[in-house]
Amino acid sequence: MAKLLVIDQQNGAKVPFLRGMLTRSLQDAGLDFVAAYQLSTDIRDDLDDTDEITTEELRNRISEALKEDYSGAVLRRYRKEDIFRENLQVVYRDGHSVPFSRNLHAQSMASCSLPRTKCTAVTRQIHGKLIRSKQRQITTAELTAVTYRTIRNELNQEYADYYLIWNDFIDNDQPLLVLLGGVPGSGKSTVATELATALGIVRTQSTDMLREVMRTLIPPRVAPHLHTSSFNANKVADSSDIYAIKDAENLLYGFQQQSELVEVACQAVLQRALNERVSMILEGVHIRPTLLPHLPESDAVIVPFALCVLDKDSLISHIKRRRATTQQRRAARYLEKIDDIWQLQSALLSAADGADIQILNNLNSEKTVSEIIKTITLTIAATYPKPRIRALRARHR
What we know:
Blueprint: E1 5-7, E2 14-16, H1 19-28, H2 33-46, E3 52-54, H3 55-69, H4 72-79, H5 83-87, E4 89-91, E5 97-99, H6 102-110, H7 116-132, E6 137-139, H8 140-154, H9 157-171, E7 176-181, H10 188-199, E8 204-206, H11 207-217, H12 247-276, E9 280-284, E10 301-308, H13 312-320, H14 325-336, H15 338-354, E11 358-361, H16 365-381, H17 386-395
Helix pairs in contact: 1-2, 3-4, 6-7, 7-8, 8-9, 9-16, 10-16, 11-12, 12-15
């Protein structure tokens, strides 16, 4: 595919066509991410044989595409024909301001367990009211109050309280640590990425990456369990070890030895997040209940989950869906070891169940992310006494 250059008609400057930038513009116009990304991809594919295009020509193509499938309101927002939308600014405490983003506003409500359709509807209602009043700017405090009242009136007090609690939690810079465990194919990475986007968490880490770093520091002769996959760690177990007598015990013993080493690195990155008071998502097969007691006392909210796919055929399908070349090679290796992975999953779920860690059957990542956000919201809300919630309500009446 040739590089497509976009020519600015005002100054003649040429810049590459950036699908991500177009996707964001379409989201601001009211499309959800999936629809915006697909339309951006379609536009790029249609211009496959084109080397250069002017900004006006590109905007016209996009406008024609929007006319076919979306309402006139979406098209007007994209072309910014509503001058007040362009001028509506959100003013932060430090005085700096940014244009009102419907996508970000709706996302802020999704963070506190509101259904996506409800978030979009509330944002549309608030945005429309501000535009009709020809308001040019609004402070974050005012926007929070307006959003709270709209949620309370249109939905219910419970969701409105969750919204206030989440905003207060964010304002207080209290760390949130989310731990996602699960075997290969359970969808940990996908869920972690979607969850980070929904909650605005910028720091994520996988235990596989931590293990890779440790491999460069510790040679195989010192820690042989570290230098193999999680479900192959039994191959390096000492045959004279009493735990290695049976195949099942051998598999779990090898994984346990590997996990105990990786947990050291997990504790280090979580400790750093606590020290820096930043939220973080840590995902990987090595996340077990044994990690939790080693974390220091803090005011952080720590919420662990165990992801799984309880149907073996579905787990195989999840693994097969890996597309990149490297992932395809890894998928082939996983499929060869599917019985071991299945056995490992059973052991991990048993441990999670014994530690009262929530287990989620991840057949649909969007639904799983929604369940995780709901649990996080309830966990945070449980730390807020009723007088504090009443004070938040009074502040935003």
